[in-house]
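ZP: hey, is the heme C complex queued? I don't see it on the tracker
AM: it wasn't, my bad. submitting now with these inputs:
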Amino acid sequence: MRKNTIPALIALIALLPFTANSIGSISTTPGEIDQDFMTDVEDTSINLSDNVAQHFAEPAVNNAKELIDAFTQVEQFYVARSDAEDAVELARKSRELSQKIIQQVDSKDFDSASASATALSRACKECHNFYKKS
Ligand code: HEC
């Protein structure tokens, strides 16, 4: 074994990007959002922030795409409820921020992408303040 192999392997493992996990379909339970779904949203948004911080463009874009898909479902869920305009608006805002992150990462503007990820976390909390019971 060449003497550089082991450090190279360690470096490779350390550099492995945070992998995108797949967000499933939103629960159709009337009146509530599925907790596992939201836990996946959380994991994906944490991965997104980490990937943006480390300038891992491709995995960050994949995370953002998953979040767009997830927030599209959240938006539809609240549109169907018809009594939750703020939640519809926050889901839409979250989706737009995820879209913006893709554009910012694509143009290698990781600082702006990071600011958008922070704004996204704020939107999560805003919605939870109003719509999450526990
Ligand atoms: C439009 C509203 C809305 C947005 C935006 C939103 N959530 Fe949620 N979230 C909810 C609701 C409602 C619940 C409560 C679901 C339940 O308890 O059944 C929840 C629950 C959660 C939970 C708790 C799950 C559990 O096991 O109890 C986590 C974690 C979470 N959200 C993370 C996030 C993250 C991270 C974001 C942003 C990237 C986000 N959410 C954006 C509405 C939202």
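AM: back. The chain is about 75% helix and 0% strand.
ZP: great, adding it to the tracker
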